[in-house]
């Protein structure tokens, strides 16, 4: 990546992952800045990554090509209101990674006329295996979109959405999705322990099976339904197992699961926008 200057506002977990990913991708540390009010956390990032650190948001953002708002959603309105004039004058692109906060609300808080790109990453971004959806306001240029995409790709897969409303579905799928898989792992491990395996053996086999299945599905040209059929011999153990899952109507359970998450995402968006 070129010497594009990127300023992170908020130096928490997600900023740390993105900065680590960008440096691993070859972005020069001297062209990365972080504004973080917590002195220990700020000093730690400066010493870990060799980036520039600031206590003050405006100083960190001054003249940056991209400003990544990486504060908690409820802090976003105050942070954006404080930076609005400066970002408009500098022509910076603003990338928000805050869950639930809509681009139109951020643009309003900034005072308008600032291109805002919204990213919805997920927790596995912390281990560089994230899945991020991006949406850009129409006024964002192709270069600004490229910059947002390159930044988020540093922590995993990136997809673009044509319509911001789809962010609620993304939140329900990849945003909250890691928790669905964690819960599945929890209950599979517990069931295996009840079958007589030790906790450690059940845990290791559960996690490696989840990883292996995901990797096979990603690397295969076949869809998951085909892969499932291929490992299900008639009258075999997998067929006996899947019969139970079908009986429990897993499809309906997951439809209700994602519907509930998407509805809550829409409500949170309304609440955050009313700040
Ligand atoms: N973690 C994830 O997996 C994940 C996934 C999707 C989206 N996100 C989004 O990413 C954003 C950051 O999440 P995170 O997990 O990195 O949170 P976090 O660890 O709490 O990081 C936020 C950082 O911002 C600092 N901060 C607070 N007020 C500030 C201000 N006025 N100006 C500048 N910095 C300020 C906080 O410092 P103090 O602690 O001292 O207040 C903290 O270091 C959130 O909006 C979240 O919705 C995170």
TrEMBL record:
GO terms for cellular component: cytoplasm. Transmembrane segments: none annotated. Residues 164-268 form the Pyrroline-5-carboxylate reductase dimerisation domain. One of its GO terms (molecular function) is pyrroline-5-carboxylate reductase activity. One of its GO terms (biological process) is L-proline biosynthetic process. It catalyses: L-proline + NAD(+) = (S)-1-pyrroline-5-carboxylate + NADH + 2 H(+); L-proline + NADP(+) = (S)-1-pyrroline-5-carboxylate + NADPH + 2 H(+). It comes from the Bacteria. NADPH binds at residue 57. The keyword Acetylation does not apply. Residues 5-100 form the Pyrroline-5-carboxylate reductase catalytic N-terminal domain. Signal peptide: none annotated. SUPFAM superfamilies: 6-phosphogluconate dehydrogenase C-terminal domain-like, NAD(P)-binding Rossmann-fold domains. It is an enzyme of class 1 (oxidoreductase). Its EC number is 1.5.1.2. Its main location: cytoplasm. InterPro entries: 6-PGluconate_DH-like_C_sf, NAD(P)-bd_dom_sf, P5C_Rdtase_cat_N, P5CR-like_CS, P5CR_dimer, Pyrroline-COOH_reductase. Keywords: Amino-acid biosynthesis, Cytoplasm, NADP, Oxidoreductase, Proline biosynthesis. NADP(+) binds at residues 9-14, 70-73. It is found in: Cytoplasm. Pathway: Amino-acid biosynthesis; L-proline biosynthesis; L-proline from L-glutamate 5-semialdehyde: step 1/1. Belongs to the pyrroline-5-carboxylate reductase family. NCBIfam families: proC. Catalyzes the reduction of 1-pyrroline-5-carboxylate (PCA) to L-proline. This is Pyrroline-5-carboxylate reductase. It comes from Spiribacter salinus M19-40. The gene is proC.
